[in-house]
Amino acid sequence: MRACVLAVENFSTDQKIVTIEGLSEDGNHPLQKAWIAAQAPQCGYCQSGQIMQAAALLEKNPSPSTEEIKTEMNGILCRCGTYLRVVKAVKLAAKAKLDDV
Question: What is the pTM for the complete model shown?
Fold first, then answer.
């Protein structure tokens, strides 16, 4: 669930909120590295939301198909139109995570 649309009082004390900074202290998370490799970042407007949505997807589905990625990432507006690069970045991150196993 996206924390950005929920009030803090709706969370219980045992729930955890992870932000983009929580993925990696040094920006070395596979998604962050894949975003750069795929040249997905442009203006930055959507990057945190895109990356966190992708992290949630890969958490529940470590090897998503292109259609699964598109379905899951639907709804996050990218003003620069880098949707194809976002799909590429998610695929790169999924492969990197699988290679680490």
Answer: 0.84
Give the end-to-end CA distance of the chain in Å, rounded to a whole number. 26
List own/partner pairs for 25-30 with CB under 8 A and 24 or more apart: 29/55, 30/92, 30/93, 30/96, 30/97, 30/100
**Over 70: is that where the pLDDT of 94 sits?**
yes
Integer Cα distance of 75 and 33 in angstroms: 23
User: Predicted confidence band at 2 (pLDDT cuts at 50, 70, 90)?
Assistant: low
Q: Which amino acid is at 48?
A: S
Q: Is the dihedral of CA 3, 63, 42, 27 positive or negative?
A: positive
Three-state helix/strand/coil letters over the chain: CCHHHCCHHHCCCCCCCCCHHHHCCCCCCHHHHHHHHCCCCCCCCCHHHHHHHHHHHHHHCCCCCHHHHHHHHCCCCCCCCCHHHHHHHHHHHHHHHHHHC
